[in-house]
Each structure stands twice: as C-alpha cells, then as structure tokens.
Design goal:
about 625 residues, alpha+beta, 8-stranded mixed β-sheet, 5-stranded antiparallel β-sheet, 21 helices, about 40% helix, globular
C-alpha cells in the first residue's frame, strides 16, 4: 500500500526516478496517470506526485507543477493544464510550511524504505513453500516459458508412470539397512532419525561406502538423544573417511536442537524440517517428510534429475533456475500420494541402478515407453537406417517464439554415440584451485611400548574443521624455503628439533570438492626419549590410535608414504596415489646391514613358488 502524508489522508504520494523527458503520462488502472518522466531533460530526477481526486501536483527541482487531470477512469485526450508556481504559492495553497511538508515527505520515504527492507529480509528468511509445491503464479509463468513437450499433459500418463515405477521397485529394490530400519520402526521420531542419518550420509557418497558407516553410527547412537549427548570429537572420529565432514557436525547440531528446543520431536513436514533444522535442505527435508511421515512431496537429487531429464528430454542446463524449478514441479506432479516415500525411493533407485550416467540399461527400464529420450534415439536410428539426408529435430517441441528454454542449446547438437546419455546436459564446472602444503610426520620413540606420532587439531571452521592432522604449513608450489617454514612450524608444537633429520619422503595429491591440494611429505624421527612438550591443540598417538582417530583420508595417504619409507614396514598396495622422489640418497652399507638385521624375513613370490614346487 502506498504511504500517505500525515494530516493529508486523501493525498496519495508516489515517488519515481525519471530517466527521460517529454514522456506523455499514461493512465493506469483506476484512471490515475503513472508517474511522469522528467520535464527538465535530466536523468534520475526524483519526483513526488500528490493526487487529490483529479488534481495533481508534481515537484521538479525547487518548483511544484500543478496538474489538472480528467476524472478517474476517463482517459485524457488532451494534456492537462499546467501552471508553474513558486514555493511561496505552494505554501499558500497547502496551508503548510514547505519545510514541514518536506520533512514529513522525507520521514514517510524513510519509513517506506525501512518497511521494504524489513519485508525483503523477512521474505529471504522465510522458507519456501513445501517442496514441490510451487506458487500458482510461478507455475503460470513457468508453464508459459517452456514447451508442453517437456511436461506430463495427460493424467493417465502420470498414473501409468507411478504404477510401473512402483511395481518395478517392489520387485527390484535393494535391501539396504536404512530401509529395513525405517520400515520396521513404529516410533515416528526414531524412524525420521534413521532416514535423516542415511540421507545425510548418502549426499555425494556411494551407497556401498555408506552401508558400513551407517551401521556403525546407528549401533553407537541409536536415538537422537544418544547423538545429542555425544561429543564432536566422537562424531568426527566415526565420520573419518566419509568426506564432507561438516555433514556430521550439522547432523549432531540438528539432533541437539530437536532434543533441547523441540521436545525431542522431529518436525513433521518438509517446510518445518527445512526451516528448523540446521543442514537440512529442500531435498533432505522432502525425503524425511515423505519416507518417515508419508507427506506427498517430491524430491530431486542427482539420480532424479537424470531420470526426469531423460523421460522428458530436458537438455538445458539442469543447474539453472528455470530447469531446477521445472524438475521440482515434475517431481511433485508425479509423486504418488498413496506411497510418497516408496515412490521417491523408487525414482532414486531407478537412477542409481538402471538410468545410470553412462551405459544406462534402457531395456530394463519400467518407464521406457514414456521416455522421450528413448523415443529420440529410436527416431535417430530410423533416420540412419533409411539414409535420409539431414537430421530431424525433436518433434512436438515447437515453442511459439524463440528457442525452447528446456531444450539443449543449438551449440550442442545431438551425439549419436551417447544415445539417451545426451540428457541431462553436463554443467561446466570450474577446476579446483591448486594449493601446496609441506607436512611432516614427527615420530617419538619410547623405551616401552609403541612409538608415538604428533597430531594437531584444525580450527573449528573451514576445511576439515575440528579434525586432526600432521603439522603442516602452506607453501608456494615452487617449493622454495618450505623446509625452513616447516621446521619452524614443527618447533612451535614440539620445541627444538634436529633440523638435519628432516627428510623429504614424497608427495601426495588429494582433491577436495574445490581444492586440489599437493602435500610435500616429510618425516622426522627423534632419537631416544627426547623430551617433547605437548601444547594445547596437540597430542601424541600410537600408530594404532592414529588409524582410529578423527583424521581425514588425506592424512591416511600421507601416513602411508611415511610407513613405506620406514625399515620393517610393509609398503601399501595403494602406493600408486603417491610419488617418491628418485633423488633420495640410498642408506649407507652399515645402515643397510642394520636394517636387514631388524627387518623380518619375508619370502619373495619366487621363493614361495619354488617351495610349492618342491
């Protein structure tokens, strides 16, 4: 609603930024002209218009322009009469001092700007509508911007899709621990927790990898209350090696919020799940709500994106806003209201096992007859067999004007060798930035028991937050002065160290989601029981303790390089991931004699074969 000037309740105030001159006022709905453009020829002139019935006034600079217009609802055929008046005349007409009017106008404008800013902030903070439920106005705009070829226009087609997909899922679904637990759990909160953990773990991680982690997690923390009472160190320790470590931290934060603020009850709808729980986005909220609570809401993950893009031949960039909205709209249209959880899992199962990124098993697809990508392949093959000239574009996809916004751009023609894998279009990704780090495994021998290695804890925010690692320092890729910088870092944790024993062992390249990090691996073994201080944020662990600590996969790679260079250790079978410098000096003959004396005898493959033959 447009604000009004105090004590002038029937006077409407409109403000606009004019950018051109000589424009003719246009009558809007209700018969009131739209704000005029600048009459002075200047750009960005702020104008104020006060309307009282059919009489208006407009201020330009230090002047006010009085306008007499036609009655509301009647279009003008002639320009309104105009009369320039000085400020004194204006004050006489309005019966108010000009300064007071301007103060009130400025106050009103400031108040209006504040309300707009507050409304914008609330709209940004307010969660979206339940997953898959687009606003009617947004749906109208979306439907008008794409070709019907990419939509499900017939209700019977939707019914057939649901029935075939669910029938296939009932027969072919994999037996997974989270599905068994969710199906057999009567308590809704425990069922939601079981689904929640699995969905978080499965983000960017393969099912085969998740199974073991999920089983150990649920054995250790079977309820939300158990997870809420755990320490972050314990969470990181169990999550170690699964990657994307912030997921575990946010999962525990969500469990604590449910226990401490929500009375131990998980929110029951996708909207409230996304709004109240940290780390729960639109997909995770929809999965929990549909599988655990039976809410009829669609979900869209990477597998579902691939299925829908092929079924409806959507070749545009799936990460764009318009395509993403269309995919969520399709998912909501297709979800079975009677079995929403099973349907969503069936769609994801189809994408994971049949409609795979490469070499999809189209002959085993239950919805092959509804797949427009498969129809496109058949048409192209028919054209090839008939040796017809030219190439046939996608039939039925004929937007009224311009290029269809869901079709592949003209710059990306159909690739006959890919078949249905032409969909979806692969989004261009930025290459990860490259960084280099010098890192050292510092080992302290002990008279009794295993030797210990030094680990330090990373900051509580950022990459690998809260995990433990070997002391390291960021260095330039050129490698200049990295030994000196690393030695200073080591001494800040462990005190004076023999610099001459610091040896370069090799390098490890590990790629995170956005960083390609090259570790220059060093080793330093202390002599005897050298007294070493242990400041806060550091600790000494045995080798066995290291393998069960909250360390990243990258640290395990670094430690394998160190173990591979130590006497009496067996080199890892995954040495292909690391490189050892060929320029390292060979140990002296005396050192080789000592090494061979203490190294246990391991028969070679040839000796095993000879003994077996005898």
């Amino acid at each position: 609603m447009t604000p009004r000037v105090p004590r002038l309740s029937i006077l409407w105030v409109r403000r606009t930024s004019a950018s051109s001159s000589g424009a003719t006022p246009v009558v809007e709905d209700g018969g009131r002209p739209s704000p005029r453009e600048s009459l002075t020829g200047r750009t960005s002139v702020q104008t104020s218009r006060l309307w009282r019935g059919g009489v208006g006034s407009e201020r330009v600079g230090a002047h006010w322009l009085l306008l007499t217009d036609s009655p509301p609802g009647v279009a003008r055929t002639t320009p309104p009469s105009k009369r320039w008046a000085r400020d004194a005349t204006w004050e006489a007409i309005m019966k108010k001092p000009r300064a007071a009017v301007e103060r009130r106008c400025r106050k009103q404008a400031s108040s209006q700007a504040g309300r707009k800013k507050h409304a914008l902030t609330r709209s940004q903070a307010k969660p979206s509508a339940p997953d898959g439920l687009a606003k009617p106005q947004e749906e109208v705009v979306l439907q008008a911007s794409v070709s019907p070829y990419h939509l499900f226009r017939d209700a019977s087609e939707v019914t057939v899709f649901r029935e075939r997909l669910l029938s296939w899922y009932d027969q072919e679904k994999r037996d997974l621990p989270w599905r068994r637990r969710a199906k057999g759990e009567v308590d809704l909160d425990r069922r939601a927790y079981a689904v929640w953990v699995s969905e978080v773990m499965l983000q960017q991680t393969q099912v085969a990898t998740v199974i073991n982690y999920y089983t150990r997690w649920m054995q250790k923390w079977p309820t939300l209350q158990d997870l809420a009472s755990a320490s972050l160190e314990e969470v990181n320790q169990l999550w170690a090696g699964l990657g994307y470590y912030s997921r575990g931290r946010r999962l525990q934060e969500g469990a604590r919020k449910v226990v401490e603020e929500l009375g131990g009850h998980v929110p029951r709808t996708a909207e409230t799940l996304q709004r109240l729980l940290p780390g729960v986005g639109r997909y995770t909220a929809g999965a929990i709500a549909s599988i655990a609570f039976g809410q009829a809401t669609g979900v869209v993950d990477g597998n579902v994106v691939r299925v829908l893009c092929r079924v409806r031949a959507i070749g545009a960039d799936a990460s764009s806003t318009l395509v993403s909205q269309q995919l969520w709209s399709l998912a909501q249209q297709l979800v079975d209201p009677a079995r929403p959880g099973d349907f969503n899992q069936a769609a994801m199962e189809l994408g994971a096992t049949v409609c795979t990124p490469q070499r999809p098993l189209c002959s085993q697809c239950p919805v092959q007859s509804l797949c427009r990508a498969h129809q496109r392949v058949e048409r192209e093959q028919l054209l090839m067999s008939q040796s017809l000239p030219g190439s046939l574009d996608v039939e039925e996809c004929a937007p009224n004007t311009g290029q269809c916004q869901l079709c592949a751009p003209p710059t990306e023609p159909w690739d006959q060798t890919l078949g249905v894998a032409n969909f979806p279009r692969k989004a261009s990704r930025r290459p990860p930035r490259e960084e280099c780090s010098a890192i050292c495994v510092l080992e302290q021998p002990r008279a009794f028991g295993d030797a210990r290695i030094l680990l330090v804890q990373r900051p509580n925010s950022g990459l690998l937050a809260g995990l433990w690692e070997f002391p390291s320092v960021t260095v330039a890729p050129s490698g200049q002065c990295q030994r000196k910088a690393l030695l200073q870092e080591l001494q800040s944790w462990a005190g004076p160290l023999p610099a001459s024993r610091l040896q370069h062992l090799g390098q490890v390249v590990h790629t995170f989601s956005h960083i390609k990090l090259t570790y220059q691996v060093y080793g330093l073994a202390l002599e005897g029981q050298t007294p070493v201080t242990t400041p806060s944020g550091a600790r000494w662990l045995t080798r066995e303790e290291f393998h069960t600590a909250a360390v990243s996969t990258a640290m395990k790679k670094v430690f394998r390089v160190y173990e591979g260079q130590q006497p009496g250790t067996c080199k890892s079978s995954r040495r292909s991931q690391v490189s050892i410098p060929a320029s390292r000096k060979r140990p002296s003959p005396d050192q080789q004699t000592l090494d061979s004396f203490f190294r246990p005898h391991i028969p070679t493959d040839a000796s095993r074969l000879n003994s077996a033959a005898q």
